[in-house]
Amino acid sequence: MALPTPTADARAVITGASSGIGAALAADLAARGHSLIVVARRTELLEALAARLTEQHGVTVEVRGLDLSDRDARATLVDELAARPISVLCNNAGIATFGPVAGLDAGYERAQVELNAVAVHDLTLAVLPGMIERGEGAILMVGSAAGNMAIPNNATYAATKAFVNTFSESLRGELKGTGVNVTLLAPGPVRTEQPAPEDASIVDRMVPDFLWTSSEYTAKLSLDSLGRNKMRIVPGVLSKAMSLAGQYSPRAITAPIVGRFYQKLGD
Ligand SMILES: NC(=O)c1ccc[n+]([C@@H]2O[C@H](COP(=O)([O-])OP(=O)(O)OC[C@H]3O[C@@H](n4cnc5c(N)ncnc54)[C@H](OP(=O)(O)O)[C@@H]3O)[C@@H](O)[C@H]2O)c1
Fold first, then answer.
1. Which of 24, 49, 145, 203 has a Cα at 20 to 30 A from 34?
2. What is the per-residue pLDDT across 232-267, written as a single tens digit (0 to 9) for each?
3. What mean pLDDT is predicted for residues 90-115?
4. Best of 36, 41, 217 to mutate for ligand 1, by most ligand atoms within 8 A of CB?
5. Where exactly are the structural domains of the chain?
6. Looking at the annotation, which residues are catalytic?
7. Where residue 105 falls among pLDDT bands split at 50, 70, 90?
8. What's the confidence (pLDDT) of residue 1?
9. Does any ligand 1 atom lie closer than 6 A to the CB of residue 214?
10. CA of 177 to the centre of ligand 1 (A)
């Protein structure tokens, strides 16, 4: 089953389209002829993306500048998506924090749960009835290899991505025969932009360039896999290694090792 065929009315929705993997997903979908609704807080970046994609591909791109961690703001989008023919939903927006959760800002941690997990649930439930009724639809869930593991010093992020990973792969089983595809993208590190040397994190410094996966490659592989209704996609050698280690090693052994590494990220 391929991705839904683009039509004048149908929209592909991409959350977190103002940068990184989300911007690459938007560009790839536009190149495939889909008109879009792009969502993020930085409206000026979305407007620039919309103008570029409309000029390059002749598609319609609607901008929704909103904070998806805000329940009231999100409810407006949920209502809109429930009422419109949404062909593709890419649940991509996400944030991460590092360090012991007790020392982090509680409000920001809660916003992380709202954005990474509750918004994914809300938006998916908004579009599902219409997709099932039309017998056609595609949902890309952007989880993470981090969602396979217990990660001290990245606790909220790892837990929210565990939600996304499990929700995606469970939901997929419920939709067999409906015409609605669901694919989980569960990457390890994806280099969304080349950091300046002074901004390079420990991950940037430790992982050699040839092991990094780009946003563009990740987006294309994800959308091709969504068209084939693959269960899970893990792009690149590094992601695959992290994914396997996380899925099949005892947590009692991996958690302290991974936690020490993430402590350095927190520092
Ligand atoms: N890059 C990686 O190594 C990697 C690895 C595994 C998983 N992932 C996952 O991939 C997804 C995209 O990550 P990325 O690396 O491309 O990150 P990114 O470049 O930081 O992009 C994150 C996107 O989410 C949006 N966003 C953040 N907070 C938001 C909010 N409150 N409301 C609405 N939009 C919000 C941002 O837009 P605004 O700031 O304009 O709102 C931005 O467009 C995330 O879910 C991430 O967890 C990434």
1. 145
2. 999 988 889 889 988 899 999 999 999 998 898 877
3. 98
4. 41
5. 11-266
6. 157
7. very high
8. 61
9. no
10. 31
Question: What percent of the chain has pLDDT above 90?
Answer: 84
- Give CATH for domain 11-266: 3.40.50.720
pLDDT at 242: 87
* Distance of CA 20 from the midpoint of ligand 1 (Å): 7
- Determine whether the shortest distance from the Cβ of 16 to ligand 1 is under 6 A: yes
Q: What is the mean pLDDT of residues 137-163?
A: 97
- Using one digit for the tens of pLDDT, what is the confidence trace for 170-208? 999 999 999 999 999 999 889 888 777 777 776 777 777
Ligand 1 contacts CB of residue 166 (under 6 A): no
* Cα 131 to averaged position of ligand 1 atoms, centre (Å): 25
Ligand 1 center to residue 18 CA distance, Å?
9
Index of the ligand 1 atom closest to the CA of residue 146:
6
> Which atom of ligand 1 is least distant from the CA of 42?
40
